[in-house]
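User: Please fill in residues for this 361-position structure.
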């Protein structure tokens, strides 16, 4: 990233950041989202996103390398292949759901949300909620404490992580309106993410952020301003002479904690490092991992048990390119074919047979 000046810095070991590095590449995210909507084939994804073939190839290769998807022979077409989500990829879906939930709740200004989710297990429209694996109650940021886990500490900053792609604003929303995108627009900026993490770890003051992150004052000021405008943090004066301010998460900001711990959990589980941080649910007094449950029946959510209704018309690639089609049309205006397609081709892009898996730590 251009503004980064320090190279061989030590950074806090963080599973959230490791996960975010995977999902916050704009194209990777868009491709993944198509998988969760049921896509399996190269051409299918290419058509919807209008993405250059070489770009799509490289993102699919990267996802396969991270073992999030696997290339398998296409049962319907000789000598062709398709892609399926792996178990790791299916669990990443829970991260997406928690990002979606935050966007639905806070980033649409009361407008209808883009996707309506139906839980096949109970048959009802639902919200994905974050629950404690120990007591099954919903998690609130204020009820969680943490302590160092076996993987706590620092490592040299990887060179790659410093080069987060910026992309044009709104790029995440290409061809589909999306609550996940809106959430990622906030946290995918590397500095913004790191500042948020410090806030969740208890830092409040400008100097603390500066010292913890080794970030230049001008960059820090810009990011804090942006977060304040977005209603994620609020600024209050704690000293008059000289004037000094501290920053606290708002109620909305605290809700970002839920996608953050979901990313933490996924990173801990799948990225091969010992957990840097252990979470305790104060309400029940037990260590926990975050589960995503159905707001209606409280069962764990798994990818293929969710059906989607699009609350917007899907633009054809041509329309998407010229942005002629309004994308916030209500469900009833979307093409019946498109709706039928998603209802008859639900997200069941799974391989292997394990249907459900509870965290057992
Ligand atoms: Zn239900
Ligand atoms: Zn609990
Ligand atoms: Zn349910």
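Assistant: Residues filled in for all 361 positions:
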């Amino acid at each position: 990233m251009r503004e980064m000046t320090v190279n061989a810095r030590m950074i806090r070991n963080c599973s959230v950041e490791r996960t975010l590095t995977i999902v916050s590449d704009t194209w990777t995210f868009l491709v993944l989202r198509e998988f969760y909507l049921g896509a399996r084939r190269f051409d299918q994804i290419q058509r919807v996103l209008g993405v250059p073939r070489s770009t799509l190839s490289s993102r699919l290769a990267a996802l396969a390398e991270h073992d999030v998807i696997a290339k398998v022979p296409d049962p319907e077409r000789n000598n062709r292949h398709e892609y399926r989500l792996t178990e790791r990829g299916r669990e990443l879906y829970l991260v997406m759901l928690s990002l979606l939930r935050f966007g639905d709740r806070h980033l649409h200004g009361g407008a209808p949300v883009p996707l309506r989710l139906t839980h096949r297990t109970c048959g009802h429209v639902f919200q994905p909620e974050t629950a404690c694996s120990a007591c099954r109650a919903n998690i609130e940021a204020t009820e969680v404490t943490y302590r160092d886990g076996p993987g706590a500490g620092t490592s040299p900053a990887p060179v790659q992580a410093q080069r987060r792609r910026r992309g044009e604003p709104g790029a995440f929303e290409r061809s589909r309106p999306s609550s996940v995108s809106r959430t990622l627009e906030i946290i995918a900026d590397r500095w913004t993410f790191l500042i948020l993490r410090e806030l969740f770890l208890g830092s409040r003051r400008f100097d603390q952020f500066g010292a913890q992150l080794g970030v230049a004052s001008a960059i820090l000021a810009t990011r804090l301003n942006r977060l304040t405008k977005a209603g994620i943090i609020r600024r209050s004066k704690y000293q008059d002479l000289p004037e000094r301010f501290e920053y606290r998460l708002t109620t909305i900001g605290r809700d970002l904690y839920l996608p953050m711990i979901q990313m933490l959990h996924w990173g801990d589980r799948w990225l091969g490092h010992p957990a840097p941080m252990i979470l305790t649910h104060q309400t029940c007094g037990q260590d926990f991992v975050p589960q995503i449950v159905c707001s209606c029946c409280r069962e764990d959510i798994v990818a293929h048990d969710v059906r989607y209704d699009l609350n917007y018309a899907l633009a054809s690639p041509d329309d998407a390119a010229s942005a002629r089609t309004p994308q916030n049309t209500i469900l009833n205006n979307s093409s019946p074919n498109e709706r039928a397609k998603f209802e008859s081709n639900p997200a069941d892009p799974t391989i292997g047979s394990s249907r459900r898996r509870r965290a057992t730590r």
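For context: The chain has 13 helices and 14 strands.
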